[in-house]
Amino acid sequence: MKSKHKLILSAFVAALLVLGVSVYGQVHKYFTPGSVWSVSMIRIHPGMDQAYLEYLDSQLKKESEISIKGGFMKSYKILRSQGDDAEWNMLILREYASFEALEKNEEKADEALRQATGIDDQKGMQGYMDRSKIREVVGTKFMREVVLK
Questions:
Q1: What are the pLDDT digits (tens) for 73-119?
Q2: Backbone phi, then psi, for 70, in 5-degree steps?
Q3: Cβ within 8 Å of residue 25, ≥6 positions away
Q4: Cα–Cα dist 69/65, whole Å
């Protein structure tokens, strides 16, 4: 009797696996999962564009280049809107190989940046508070790139 139940259970599990593989194939029929992007929506306070652009061109650029050279990040982009949007007017995009790479390298990347820039947690928090006077982070989302086949 037990062997009959095992056989039925094994057949059921096999059917689920076959179904799962076919569903996975259907989901990825039209695209391949690509890089992971961190997308930060920024609202620069009125009249503070030059101050924030100065930060981007110095500190953010330096940290991003260190992360790319260290292999922690693939690339980054900054997009600025041309209209006057009350919600956000700039996007900062950071590209990572995968969610796994992002999570796996988080501590290593932090340490590399700390050593290269000399900015510890306290200085980092102070910098964040200083930047809050010139911009607001509306939100950050992590998104996977869809590469169409």
A1: 999 999 999 877 679 999 999 999 999 998 998 888 988 888 888 87
A2: -80, -5
A3: none
A4: 6
User: CA nearest 92: which of 64, 132, 112?
Assistant: 64
Number of domains in the chain: 1
Range of the domain at 74: 31-148
14 and 60 in contact (C-beta within 8 Å)? no
Identify whether 59 is part of a domain. yes
Element (H, E) at 71: none
For residue 20, being part of any structural domain is answered with no
Nearest of 107, 109, 108, 117 to residue 58 by alpha carbon: 117
Which CATH number do you get for residue 89? 3.30.70.100
What is this structure's pTM?
Answer: 0.76
